[in-house]
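FORM 12-B: Structure-to-Sequence Request
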């Protein structure tokens, strides 16, 4: 079986971050489901655009609850998706299972009807909140035994107890998965952004594969070493000594330890990618004569700091890009230049921070595009997880 024949389906596709990463890793999407009209417009724009990964995508716009997966397609190897995160988001109202937007039941149903060899679902860090721990355990058990469905009159707490009894018994079901989950920081995998996402991965029991999450490839110590010990970071970006920022006070002790611990041998791995790395080669959006080559790169004025929201430093991974139900929260998604000046990231710059390719375009206003990007999975992170899963899915 060739890697390009490993067929996948994705739910809750959004702007396509997870889908792009999985497609680049070698999965072949046969259908993508999304109900948000603006996100669908973005995917359709790229169906006929320059990004070749998207050209064969079959988009189905509508409510996933109306889909009968067994009638939609067959021979699916992977089910993927990011169930809407608002019920669990740290920035939301934290309703969890009591929120009508909780789509984990539909993710479980897709696994039950399609019986893939493997599935991968992602969600926000807030899913690990103590107040959601019981419901997360419930989600994991449902994905482990997807055919043990909740009865029409059964409360989810009662269903959880039944699943727990089954899990601790010696009984087997016709369809079982071996499920693991982990909180991943995208910066640890080369994404120029501190962004934490929970990934849930399950292999069908009869597949009999051993798997673990991919090892981190990048780290902060290597970045600090190249910035404040060898200086090669600044040389790489051709930043003159007089233009370099001052050594950050909050990191003085850590940098001093690095100089002591790694005098002869530098830290292993690759350095964290920074905002400066991400924006390499892209012109200042305030210069309209130079930014015409880049789509979605229009300057937006009005950036100012709010308490607790002071922008991302140029020479660190960015803070987590955010987007609420109605666009960008006040004071978020800003760049703090070495002069102390603040400005909003453009849509293209934000896409760079989420590792979307430059030939992938976004449809809608600045606010709408930023919402799509802020809700997306970093493409690089999705690709690394997807490639690791693919290696064991044959």
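FORM 12-B RESPONSE
SEQUENCE OUT:
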């Amino acid at each position: 079986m060739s890697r390009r024949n490993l067929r996948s389906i994705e739910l809750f596709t959004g702007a396509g971050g997870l889908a792009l990463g999985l497609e680049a890793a070698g999965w072949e999407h046969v259908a993508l489901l999304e109900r948000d009209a603006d996100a669908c417009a973005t995917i359709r724009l790229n169906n006929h655009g320059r990004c070749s990964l998207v050209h064969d995508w079959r988009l189905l716009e509508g409510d996933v609850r109306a889909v009968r997966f067994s009638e939609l397609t067959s021979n699916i190897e992977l089910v993927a998706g990011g169930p809407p995160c608002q019920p669990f988001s740290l920035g939301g109202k934290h309703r969890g299972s009591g929120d009508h937007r909780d789509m984990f039941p539909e993710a479980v149903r897709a696994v039950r009807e399609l019986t893939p060899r493997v599935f991968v679902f992602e969600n926000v860090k807030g899913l690990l909140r103590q107040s959601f721990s019981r419901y997360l355990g419930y989600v994991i058990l449902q994905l482990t035994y997807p055919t043990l469905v909740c009865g029409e009159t059964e409360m989810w707490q009662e269903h959880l107890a039944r699943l727990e009894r089954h899990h601790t018994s010696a009984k087997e079901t016709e369809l079982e998965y071996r499920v693991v989950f982990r909180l991943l920081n995208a910066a640890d995998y080369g994404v120029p952004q501190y962004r934490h996402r929970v990934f849930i991965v399950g292999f069908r029991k009869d597949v009999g594969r051993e798997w673990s999450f991919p090892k981190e490839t990048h780290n902060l110590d290597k970045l600090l070493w190249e910035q404040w010990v060898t200086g090669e970071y600044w040389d790489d970006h051709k930043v003159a000594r007089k233009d370099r920022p001052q050594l950050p006070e909050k990191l003085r002790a850590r940098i001093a330890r690095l100089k002591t611990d790694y005098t002869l041998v530098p830290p292993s791995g690759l350095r964290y990618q920074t905002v400066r790395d991400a924006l390499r080669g892209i012109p200042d959006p305030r210069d309209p004569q130079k930014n015409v080559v880049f789509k979605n790169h229009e300057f937006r004025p009005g950036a100012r700091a709010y308490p607790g929201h002071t922008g991302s430093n140029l020479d660190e991974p960015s803070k987590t890009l955010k987007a609420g139900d109605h666009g960008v929260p006040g004071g978020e998604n800003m760049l703090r230049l070495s002069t102390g000046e603040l400005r909003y990231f453009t849509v293209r710059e934000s896409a760079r921070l989420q590792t979307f390719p430059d030939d992938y375009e976004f449809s809608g206003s600045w606010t709408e595009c930023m919402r799509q990007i802020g809700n997306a999975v970093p493409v690089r992170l999705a690709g690394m997880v997807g490639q690791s899963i693919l290696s064991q899915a044959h």
